[in-house]
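Weekly puzzle thread! Below is a chain. First person to post its structure in C-alpha coordinate form gets bragging rights.
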Amino acid sequence: MSIPFPSMQRPLVAILRGVKPEETEAIVGVLIEAGMTAIEIPLNSPDPFRSIATAVKLAPAGVLIGAGTVLTAEDVDRLNDVGGRLMVSPNVDTEVLALAHHHGMVTLPGVFSPTEALLAVRSGASGLKFFPASVLGASGIAAIRAVLPAGVMIAAVGGVSDQNFAEYIKGGVTAFGLGSSLYKPGMGAADVAARAKATVTAYDRAIAKG
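Winning reply:
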Protein backbone atom coordinates (compact mmCIF):
# COMPACT_ATOMS: atom_id res chain seq x y z
CA MET A 1 0.00 0.00 0.00
CA SER A 2 1.55 3.29 -1.03
CA ILE A 3 1.77 6.33 1.21
CA PRO A 4 0.22 9.34 -0.56
CA PHE A 5 2.27 12.50 -0.92
CA PRO A 6 0.92 14.80 1.79
CA SER A 7 -1.07 17.87 0.95
CA MET A 8 1.16 20.93 1.40
CA GLN A 9 0.63 24.65 1.01
CA ARG A 10 3.85 24.72 -0.99
CA PRO A 11 5.18 21.34 -2.21
CA LEU A 12 8.76 22.59 -2.36
CA VAL A 13 11.59 20.23 -1.42
CA ALA A 14 14.84 21.90 -0.35
CA ILE A 15 17.78 19.68 -1.37
CA LEU A 16 20.77 20.25 0.90
CA ARG A 17 23.44 18.29 -0.93
CA GLY A 18 26.77 18.68 0.85
CA VAL A 19 25.45 20.21 4.06
CA LYS A 20 27.54 19.42 7.15
CA PRO A 21 25.98 18.33 10.46
CA GLU A 22 27.24 21.44 12.25
CA GLU A 23 25.52 23.65 9.66
CA THR A 24 22.23 21.79 9.57
CA GLU A 25 20.38 23.41 12.46
CA ALA A 26 20.85 26.98 11.23
CA ILE A 27 20.13 26.23 7.57
CA VAL A 28 17.10 24.02 8.20
CA GLY A 29 15.78 26.64 10.64
CA VAL A 30 15.78 29.45 8.06
CA LEU A 31 14.24 27.18 5.40
CA ILE A 32 11.33 26.29 7.67
CA GLU A 33 10.91 29.93 8.68
CA ALA A 34 10.77 30.94 5.00
CA GLY A 35 7.92 28.49 4.35
CA MET A 36 9.65 25.44 2.85
CA THR A 37 7.63 22.32 3.56
CA ALA A 38 10.05 19.47 2.81
CA ILE A 39 13.80 19.06 3.29
CA GLU A 40 15.95 16.39 1.69
CA ILE A 41 19.53 15.68 2.74
CA PRO A 42 21.22 13.50 0.11
CA LEU A 43 23.19 10.56 1.43
CA ASN A 44 26.34 11.64 -0.41
CA SER A 45 26.58 14.56 2.03
CA PRO A 46 28.98 14.47 5.01
CA ASP A 47 27.56 12.31 7.85
CA PRO A 48 24.04 12.63 6.39
CA PHE A 49 22.13 10.63 8.97
CA ARG A 50 23.35 12.92 11.78
CA SER A 51 22.14 15.93 9.79
CA ILE A 52 18.78 14.25 9.11
CA ALA A 53 18.35 13.47 12.83
CA THR A 54 19.01 17.15 13.63
CA ALA A 55 16.50 18.30 11.01
CA VAL A 56 13.85 15.86 12.29
CA LYS A 57 14.15 17.34 15.80
CA LEU A 58 13.77 20.88 14.46
CA ALA A 59 10.86 20.30 12.11
CA PRO A 60 7.32 21.12 13.22
CA ALA A 61 4.36 18.96 12.24
CA GLY A 62 3.66 19.28 8.54
CA VAL A 63 7.30 19.66 7.48
CA LEU A 64 8.63 16.52 5.82
CA ILE A 65 12.26 15.55 6.49
CA GLY A 66 14.18 12.81 4.75
CA ALA A 67 17.02 11.62 2.58
CA GLY A 68 17.93 11.77 -1.08
CA THR A 69 20.16 9.49 -3.15
CA VAL A 70 18.75 6.50 -1.27
CA LEU A 71 20.04 3.43 -3.09
CA THR A 72 19.80 0.43 -0.74
CA ALA A 73 17.50 -1.24 1.75
CA GLU A 74 20.13 -0.56 4.42
CA ASP A 75 19.86 3.17 3.68
CA VAL A 76 16.09 2.98 4.15
CA ASP A 77 16.44 1.26 7.52
CA ARG A 78 18.97 3.84 8.71
CA LEU A 79 16.71 6.64 7.55
CA ASN A 80 13.87 5.12 9.53
CA ASP A 81 16.11 4.82 12.60
CA VAL A 82 16.75 8.59 12.67
CA GLY A 83 13.10 9.48 12.09
CA GLY A 84 13.18 10.43 8.41
CA ARG A 85 9.81 10.21 6.65
CA LEU A 86 10.75 11.17 3.07
CA MET A 87 12.66 8.75 0.82
CA VAL A 88 13.98 10.22 -2.43
CA SER A 89 15.97 8.09 -4.88
CA PRO A 90 17.56 8.70 -8.29
CA ASN A 91 16.06 5.48 -9.67
CA VAL A 92 13.18 3.02 -9.36
CA ASP A 93 14.25 0.13 -7.13
CA THR A 94 11.22 -1.94 -6.18
CA GLU A 95 12.92 -3.45 -3.10
CA VAL A 96 13.85 -0.02 -1.78
CA LEU A 97 10.34 1.30 -2.45
CA ALA A 98 8.68 -1.66 -0.74
CA LEU A 99 10.79 -1.26 2.40
CA ALA A 100 10.18 2.48 2.53
CA HIS A 101 6.44 1.82 2.30
CA HIS A 102 6.78 -0.76 5.08
CA HIS A 103 8.27 2.00 7.26
CA GLY A 104 5.44 4.38 6.33
CA MET A 105 7.60 6.76 4.31
CA VAL A 106 6.62 9.12 1.54
CA THR A 107 8.52 7.98 -1.56
CA LEU A 108 9.75 10.00 -4.52
CA PRO A 109 11.76 7.83 -6.93
CA GLY A 110 13.59 9.37 -9.87
CA VAL A 111 12.21 8.71 -13.36
CA PHE A 112 12.98 9.94 -16.87
CA SER A 113 10.96 7.75 -19.23
CA PRO A 114 7.37 6.46 -19.47
CA THR A 115 8.67 2.96 -18.67
CA GLU A 116 10.27 4.12 -15.42
CA ALA A 117 7.33 6.33 -14.50
CA LEU A 118 4.78 3.56 -14.97
CA LEU A 119 6.95 1.07 -13.04
CA ALA A 120 7.19 3.53 -10.15
CA VAL A 121 3.42 4.06 -10.15
CA ARG A 122 2.83 0.30 -10.21
CA SER A 123 5.30 -0.08 -7.33
CA GLY A 124 3.26 2.35 -5.20
CA ALA A 125 5.42 5.48 -5.33
CA SER A 126 3.93 8.47 -3.53
CA GLY A 127 5.03 10.69 -6.40
CA LEU A 128 7.38 10.78 -9.38
CA LYS A 129 10.59 12.81 -9.46
CA PHE A 130 11.34 13.71 -13.07
CA PHE A 131 15.11 14.21 -13.19
CA PRO A 132 16.91 15.95 -14.74
CA ALA A 133 13.90 18.11 -15.52
CA SER A 134 16.01 20.59 -17.48
CA VAL A 135 16.75 17.90 -20.08
CA LEU A 136 13.14 16.76 -20.48
CA GLY A 137 11.77 20.27 -20.20
CA ALA A 138 8.24 21.14 -19.20
CA SER A 139 6.90 19.91 -22.55
CA GLY A 140 8.64 16.54 -22.20
CA ILE A 141 7.22 16.00 -18.73
CA ALA A 142 3.76 17.02 -19.97
CA ALA A 143 3.98 14.46 -22.80
CA ILE A 144 4.83 11.63 -20.41
CA ARG A 145 2.21 12.78 -17.92
CA ALA A 146 -0.43 12.20 -20.63
CA VAL A 147 0.07 8.43 -20.37
CA LEU A 148 0.13 8.26 -16.57
CA PRO A 149 -2.87 7.58 -14.33
CA ALA A 150 -4.81 10.70 -13.41
CA GLY A 151 -3.83 12.25 -10.11
CA VAL A 152 -0.22 11.06 -10.00
CA MET A 153 1.91 13.61 -8.15
CA ILE A 154 4.59 14.96 -10.49
CA ALA A 155 7.75 16.65 -9.21
CA ALA A 156 10.46 18.32 -11.27
CA VAL A 157 14.06 18.28 -10.05
CA GLY A 158 17.25 19.45 -11.74
CA GLY A 159 17.42 22.85 -13.38
CA VAL A 160 14.20 24.14 -11.83
CA SER A 161 14.23 27.32 -9.78
CA ASP A 162 12.26 30.44 -8.95
CA GLN A 163 12.95 31.53 -12.56
CA ASN A 164 10.86 28.85 -14.29
CA PHE A 165 8.12 27.64 -11.94
CA ALA A 166 5.35 28.92 -14.21
CA GLU A 167 6.26 26.91 -17.31
CA TYR A 168 6.49 23.64 -15.34
CA ILE A 169 3.22 24.28 -13.51
CA LYS A 170 1.51 24.71 -16.91
CA GLY A 171 2.92 21.30 -17.86
CA GLY A 172 1.27 19.62 -14.89
CA VAL A 173 4.13 19.65 -12.41
CA THR A 174 2.82 20.00 -8.86
CA ALA A 175 6.03 19.83 -6.76
CA PHE A 176 9.61 21.01 -7.10
CA GLY A 177 12.95 19.86 -5.77
CA LEU A 178 15.34 22.78 -5.41
CA GLY A 179 19.06 22.21 -5.07
CA SER A 180 21.78 24.60 -6.17
CA SER A 181 19.33 27.47 -6.73
CA LEU A 182 18.64 27.33 -2.99
CA TYR A 183 21.75 25.89 -1.35
CA LYS A 184 25.36 25.17 -2.28
CA PRO A 185 28.01 23.80 0.11
CA GLY A 186 29.63 26.57 2.07
CA MET A 187 26.67 28.95 1.96
CA GLY A 188 25.69 30.57 5.22
CA ALA A 189 22.22 30.60 6.73
CA ALA A 190 21.61 34.25 5.79
CA ASP A 191 22.22 33.56 2.10
CA VAL A 192 20.02 30.46 2.19
CA ALA A 193 17.28 32.44 3.94
CA ALA A 194 17.32 35.13 1.23
CA ARG A 195 17.14 32.52 -1.55
CA ALA A 196 14.38 30.62 0.23
CA LYS A 197 12.25 33.75 0.63
CA ALA A 198 12.70 34.62 -3.06
CA THR A 199 11.78 31.04 -4.01
CA VAL A 200 8.62 31.00 -1.91
CA THR A 201 7.55 34.39 -3.27
CA ALA A 202 8.11 33.25 -6.87
CA TYR A 203 6.20 30.00 -6.30
CA ASP A 204 3.24 31.80 -4.73
CA ARG A 205 3.17 34.25 -7.64
CA ALA A 206 3.29 31.43 -10.23
CA ILE A 207 0.45 29.57 -8.52
CA ALA A 208 -1.65 32.73 -8.27
CA LYS A 209 -1.25 33.31 -12.01
CA GLY A 210 -2.23 29.71 -12.71
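Puzzle host: Confirmed. Bonus trivia for everyone else. The longest strand covers residues 106-111.
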